[in-house]
Amino acid sequence: MDRRQQKTRDAIFSAFSVLLSKKNYNRISVQEIIDEANIGRTTFYAHFETKDFLLKELCEELFNHITDTAMGLPANHNNYICKCATDSVFLHLLKHLQENDLNILELLSCENNEIFLRYFKSNLKRLIISQYAENGELRNSSLPEDYLINHISSSFVETVSWWISHNMKEPPEKITEYFLQAIEPVLNGKGNNENSAFRPF
Amino acid sequence: MDRRQQKTRDAIFSAFSVLLSKKNYNRISVQEIIDEANIGRTTFYAHFETKDFLLKELCEELFNHITDTAMGLPANHNNYICKCATDSVFLHLLKHLQENDLNILELLSCENNEIFLRYFKSNLKRLIISQYAENGELRNSSLPEDYLINHISSSFVETVSWWISHNMKEPPEKITEYFLQAIEPVLNGKGNNENSAFRPF
DNA sequence: CAAGATACAGAACAAGTTGTTTTGTACTGA
DNA sequence: TCAGTACAAAACAACTTGTTCTGTATCTTG
Q1: Number of domains observed in the structure of chain A
Q2: Chain B contact present for A182, CB below 8 A
Q3: CB contact under 8 A, B181 and A186
Q4: Residue A201 resides in a domain
Q5: Which of A6, A136, B7, B131 has the greatest number of C-beta atoms within 10 Å?
Q6: CATH number, domain at A9?
Q7: DSSP B143-201
Q8: Measured on CA atoms in the order B101, B103, B108, B113, is the torsion positive or negative?
């Protein structure tokens, strides 16, 4: 790739990130991005069709990086060790976040964090499916599999969000503990109505 | 309130809802709302300062209605019956949604559903706090109370979202069952590290 | 029912945004 | 070195936003 192109692309991403951490996405104009990146108007539109496409590509750049490395981790498919494997994947993600590659933390804690948390969640779903669901490990519960996958991924994203909003005071290990406690029953595959200790009706 | 004012206000809300169920919030212009509502430009701005304020008031109208009735329900503070009370509050909310007052379901399932789910969640948090947290019922867990409240409310919202996206095929009772199974451990107040069956490390 | 108050419609306005086109310049890679 | 490419700058139409003005219709209350 042409050095000029890469330089411009980086400048746009960088400028966009700066603006995103300061003000609402909807209220950021293309003109502001252009000014912050110090490029010409034509140049911006040569790189990105619209502001929305820019956001999409930024998200892909950020999260594909994170989840791809997690995808590479070997999934352990023994039922007991499953919890350790789960642990290691989620713990790995938290540690990765803590390193704050690409200044992703600013985006996950700013006014626009919901945009990025949404992307994070959808990537996480794919990760969980590839690690567990494909092997049928999530099928032993009385809950529907897609309900389960959604519950686990959204719980993790909410956990991360909670952690960041508390300035990440706790170590990643503690957060992993919280998270696993919260979703423990569904991972254990228990919860069939007959055996359940509680009776809702 | 002046009949003319109420009529205009309703026309704006109605037009806005129609547009929201069809296209992305960001791409709806004030002019489109004006045209759909068949009112004058001046009139719109006499009622709402901006499109964002209109959204805010619409959300308040929708969700205050729902949670206010739930707030009125008597909270049962016995530890065992707690689960039934929880049950009845959440089940009540689901049944309420099923009745589709104010055509809220269209908004919860359209392209803009995240906007409304966010509002729903924040109202839900207040509801949970007023019903349980204020009495210290959520303090017996090893998880931080605000983490718990967030986990419960977001899990419920995700459950609702999952339900709607599946065209609400299951009865509200079944969904309540799913939800309570998913969050069972945190409500049981167990999960103290010492007694927990799983060891993350 | 009359009369002052109020809500509304319509038009016009400046200021800003979006996405495109055109022209000329500077850089890159082979 | 040189052809191809990326870029800057300026101008453009079409659209959006929020305001102001003028005149009309409707409401409330006395």
Answers
A1: 2
A2: yes
A3: yes
A4: no
A5: B131
A6: 1.10.10.60
A7: S-HHHHHHHHHHHHHHHHHHHHHTTT-S-HHHHHHHHHHHHHHHHHT---TTT-S----
A8: negative
Strand, helix or coil at A69? helix
B23 touches strand D (CB under 7 A): no
CATH code of the domain in which B102 resides? 1.10.357.10
pLDDT digits (tens, 9 = 90+) for A30-53: 999 999 999 999 999 999 999 999
Spatial neighbors of B129 by CB under 8 A, at least 6 apart, are: B149
Asked if the structure places residue B113 within a domain, the reply is: yes
pTM, 2 dp: 0.89
- Among candidates B146, B178, B197 on the partner chain, residue whose Cβ is nearest the Cβ of A147: B178
pLDDT value at residue A78: 44
Q: HSE of A87 in the Cβ direction (CA atoms, 13 Å)?
A: 17
Q: Which residues of chain B have pLDDT under 70?
A: 73-87, 187-201
Domain shared by A83 and A128, yes or no: yes
Cβ of B154 within 8 Å of Cβ of A154? The answer is yes
Domain of residue B22 covers: 3-48
Question: Can you tell me the distance from the alpha carbon of A132 to that of A74, in angstroms, rounded to the nearest whole number?
Answer: 11
**CA-to-CA separations, A104 to A48, A96, A116, A154, in angstroms, rounded:** 21, 10, 9, 19
Supply the angle between the helices B113-131 and B145-165 in degrees, to the nearest 10.
Answer: 140
User: Terminus-to-terminus CA distance in chain A, angstroms?
Assistant: 64
Task: Say if the Cβ atoms of B151 and A180 lie within 8 Å.
Answer: no
Helix A81-99 vs helix A113-131: crossing angle, to nearest 10: 150
Closest to B24 in 3D by CA, of A46, A51, A131? A51
Distance of alpha carbon B109 from alpha carbon A115, whole angstroms: 18
From its phi and psi, is residue B38 left (phi > 0), alpha (psi between -120 and 50) or beta?
A: left
Q: How many Å apart are B6 CA and D17 C1'?
A: 25
Helical pair B145-165 and B81-98, crossing angle rounded to 10 deg: 40
Unique residue bearing structure tokens 């409310």: B153
- What per-residue confidence (pLDDT) applies to B174? 96
Q: Kindly tell me if the per-residue pLDDT of A81 is higher than 90.
A: no
Please provide the DSSP assignment of A121-145 as one string. Answer: HHHHHHHHHHHTGGGTTT-SSSS-H
* Calpha distance A154→A198 (Å, rounded): 24
Nucleotides of D under 7 A from a protein CB: 5-11, 15-22, 26-28
Contact B35, B83 (CB under 8 A): no
